[in-house]
Amino acid sequence: MLLRIDPGSTEPLFAQLAAQVRAAVLRGELRPGARLPTARDLAASLDVNLHTVLRAYGELRDEGLVELRRGRGAVVAAHAAGDLDPVHAAVAALVSAARARGLAPATTVGLLKDALSQQEDR
């Protein structure tokens, strides 16, 4: 798996890394039990601070997507992706409906974020 960062992005580097790993798990590219690069190796290969990678891994751990094990590094959790077929179908339907109405991707993402935050408030 190849991880990339965009230093010019407004999104923090740790968030970029976490999002890429999260997406790879959801797409099935990273299966449960798969080992992620060590934080030290990933930091060196991306030329970022070690703590940036550790923060990304910590965020993924807090979400339950990865397990951090001393001496073994970060491993994709056994229950990480689960059965996401219904979610993928719902997202595909959302994208189709948004495109049919001519909504910009940023608008669609904004609507989804609003809906998610409203669910958290309940």
TrEMBL record:
Pfam families from the UniProt entry: GntR
Q: Say if the entry is tagged with keyword Electron transport.
A: no
PROSITE patterns found in the cross-reference section: HTH_GNTR (PS50949)
Question: Could you give a GO molecular-function term held by this entry?
Answer: DNA binding
- Domain HTH gntR-type: residue ranges: 11-79
Q: Which UniProt keywords apply?
A: DNA-binding, Transcription, Transcription regulation
Keyword Transcription regulation part of the UniProt annotation: yes
Q: What name does UniProt use for this protein?
A: GntR family transcriptional regulator
Q: Which organism is it from?
A: Cellulomonas marina
